[in-house]
């Protein structure tokens, strides 16, 4: 019997562990993990014989990663599907692949990450030995209290944040972890002023901070910057990287027209990208390079606080560590306050003073080091 489109859609979604209720949502209303599963469902809809996947598990928590890995294995055997997958995650590769091809660049040999080993052995960026969740005494910084954010769709309401409290003292680095869909991005977007909460308060150094970004002063807009999970969210595909970096410099009157090229070059340099990348478009950059360009865009306004959403999720261990090293360097040299959302508790634990766990729309407690966000 030929399934009706609705049934077929439902079955595809179930196959990819997506609740049927999401069928009526727009992609922008899905969490990062849900969007990845949706992309997989879309690819499967045409009943392909060969599936080419680019980092299909990036940004997923450990439980979802295992589910997707098992699903790919099952589809491969049950449907005779050939799966070709690019991945930085050796664990996924080990569970999924019959054959592995390792690619290397001329100057950077392929170095597989061994689970359980230090993140990048020998690198200056190896997690620092700091007592986890050590008490810190820093100025007030950004504080959020009792945030409620609900999304309504066709009579169904989803409470993404249900009384979330959060504090990022000035100069601190704070991690936020939690299972996929628990509201991490929603919390960051609310702090950034991009998502209006139904209730709750935000303060900056003890003074009220308007929730919507458009009601914040130009100076506050400059001081708080958001680096999205998908760098393309910050990089307009129709603009060169140079034009993207010049825009906030112009809008916030950071430098005049004459100094613009030098400042754009300086921003690229600060994130370890060559100056001639100013002439490239986002699609001409690798994932890691795009992530750096996205950070450079956020740095253009000389912010005091960077809210980073899964900025390392699609990067290999060495590049992920390099990006976090860069953020740690910026924190030290520019007195930046950092908030890092990530599933990789082990990784961000080495770069933050405190890692919070988000569950049921609330920040429930500091996460223990090495705690698996998915098991929370
Ligand atoms: N604009 C929106 N409209 C409707 N629902 C939304 C919207 N934005 C987020 N949601 C829902 O709110 C929940 C939390 O989403 P959010 O993106 O904050 O999760 P997350 O913890 O960042 O997930 P991930 O780790 O997968 O990126 C999800 O169930 C998502 O479907």
UniProtKB/TrEMBL annotation:
Q: Where is the signal peptide?
A: none
The top EC class, named as a word, is hydrolase
Q: What SUPFAM superfamilies does the entry give?
A: P-loop containing nucleoside triphosphate hydrolases (SSF52540)
The EC number(s) given in the record are 3.6.3.-
**Which UniProt keywords are given for this protein, alphabetically ordered?**
ATP-binding, Hydrolase, Nucleotide-binding, Transport
| InterPro entries with a match to the protein in the record | AAA+_ATPase, ABC_transp_ATP-bind, ABC_transporter-like_ATP-bd, ABC_transporter-like_CS, P-loop_NTPase
Q: Which GO terms describe its molecular function?
A: ATP binding; hydrolase activity
Q: Ranges for the ABC transporter domain?
A: 142-376
Q: Which family does it belong to?
A: Belongs to the ABC transporter superfamily.
Q: What is this protein called?
A: Glutathione import ATP-binding protein GsiA
């Amino acid at each position: 019997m030929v399934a009706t489109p609705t049934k077929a859609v439902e079955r595809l979604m179930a196959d990819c562990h997506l609740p049927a209720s999401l069928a009526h949502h727009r992609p922008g209303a899905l969490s990062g993990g849900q969007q990845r599963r949706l992309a997989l469902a879309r690819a499967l809809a045409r009943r392909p014989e060969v599936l080419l996947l680019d980092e299909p598990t990036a940004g997923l928590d450990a439980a979802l990663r295992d589910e997707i890995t098992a699903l790919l294995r099952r589809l491969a055997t049950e449907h005779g599907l050939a799966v070709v997958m690019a991945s930085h995650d050796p664990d996924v590769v080990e569970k999924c692949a019959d054959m592995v091809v390792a690619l290397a660049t001329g100057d950077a040999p392929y170095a597989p990450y061994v689970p359980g080993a230090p993140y990048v052995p020998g690198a200056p960026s190896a997690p620092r030995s700091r007592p986890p969740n050590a008490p810190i005494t820093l100025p007030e910084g950004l504080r959020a209290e009792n945030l409620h954010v609900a999304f309504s769709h066709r009579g169904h309401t989803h409470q993404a944040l249900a009384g979330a409290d959060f504090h990022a003292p000035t100069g601190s680095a704070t991690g936020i972890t939690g299972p996929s869909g628990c509201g991490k991005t929603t919390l960051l977007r609310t702090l950034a002023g991009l998502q209006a909460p139904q209730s709750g308060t935000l303060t900056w150094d003890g003074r009220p901070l308007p929730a919507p970004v458009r009601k914040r002063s130009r100076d506050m807009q400059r001081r708080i910057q958001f680096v999205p999970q998908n760098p393309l969210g910050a990089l307009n595909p129709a603009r060169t990287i140079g034009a993207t970096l010049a825009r906030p410099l112009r809008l916030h009157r950071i430098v005049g027209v004459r100094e613009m090229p030098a400042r754009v070059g300086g921003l690229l340099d600060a994130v370890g990208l060559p100056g001639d990348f100013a002439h490239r478009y986002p699609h001409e950059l690798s994932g890691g390079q795009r992530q750096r360009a996205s950070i450079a865009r956020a740095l253009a306004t000389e912010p005091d606080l960077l809210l980073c959403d899964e900025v390392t999720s699609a990067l290999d261990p060495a590049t992920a560590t390099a990006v976090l090293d860069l953020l740690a360097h910026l924190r030290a040299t520019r007195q930046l306050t950092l908030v890092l959302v990530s599933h990789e508790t082990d990784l961000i634990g080495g770069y933050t003073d405190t890692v919070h766990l988000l569950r049921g729309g609330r920040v429930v407690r500091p996460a223990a080091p090495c705690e698996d966000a998915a098991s929370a």
